[in-house]
Known about the structure:
NAD(+) binds at residues 9-28, 86-89, 175-177, 219. By secondary structure, the chain is an alpha/beta fold.
Amino acid sequence: MKKMVIFSGAGMSAESGINTFRDSKGLWEQYRIEDVATPEAWAKNPELVQRFYNARRKNILEAQPNAAHQLIANLEDNFDVHIITQNIDDLHERAGSSKVIHLHGNIRLAKTSGPNCQYTTEFYPIEGTELDLNKHFCKAGYPLRPHVVWFGEAVPAYTVAQDCIQDADILVVIGTSLQVYPVAGLIHEIPPECAAYYIDPKADQQYLPAQFHKISQTATEGMKTLLSLFDPKV
Ligand SMILES: NC(=O)c1ccc[n+]([C@@H]2O[C@H](COP(=O)([O-])OP(=O)(O)OC[C@H]3O[C@@H](n4cnc5c(N)ncnc54)[C@H](O)[C@@H]3O)[C@@H](O)[C@H]2O)c1
């Protein structure tokens, strides 16, 4: 079976009703990123950050995987599919995809807010939607924070993703503005013989290596176009 790597971003979940932030002028659900998605924001106002992610978690739990998530999950019948996602939602898993690397964390999990929290490998499942600063603590006694990589933090899963993409036969980049580094750099790690596709309504405006075929469509329409381009058994 050929190895197909799917590299997804916030646009992947747009049709599930979860907003991207690039499309709302750098705001995420009306918040400035600096106020809710940085270590400085947590240090300054942990209540606001916790409230923001509690609301995102509720939104994600109420959302359903869309047709594009489903089409990707179905690809496992014919390909060795590996998903590398920038998304903190779990919609790929809920659609049935079995191998998912979360570069920026998973909002259904919590981790310590203590020293070295960026690198911890100890995660706590969150029951329901709420993390409470006064009720939920790690084993060492620090309040639990969402398992999300904030701007300015290390991306421990990067090397795992790098290893995964380096021997891809097919790469499908979908629903990402490729503006968040270091993860956007991953697309340059593919081997020269890899067949690469970029699905995004704004694909035409994106500068990409010549190896990439651009499909300027939404996730679902773009996946249907992609499937029509090749015989899944190739
Ligand atoms: N669902 C989530 O988990 C979620 C939501 C918002 C932001 N984020 C975080 O914010 C960061 C943002 O980077 P990013 O590049 O993923 O997102 P981004 O907001 O920078 O870019 C979103 C991209 O999706 C495209 N898009 C919009 N509607 C689409 C659709 N229906 N189908 C396909 N594509 C569509 C846009 O043209 C754009 O290129 C990520 O690192 C992610 O962790 C995550």
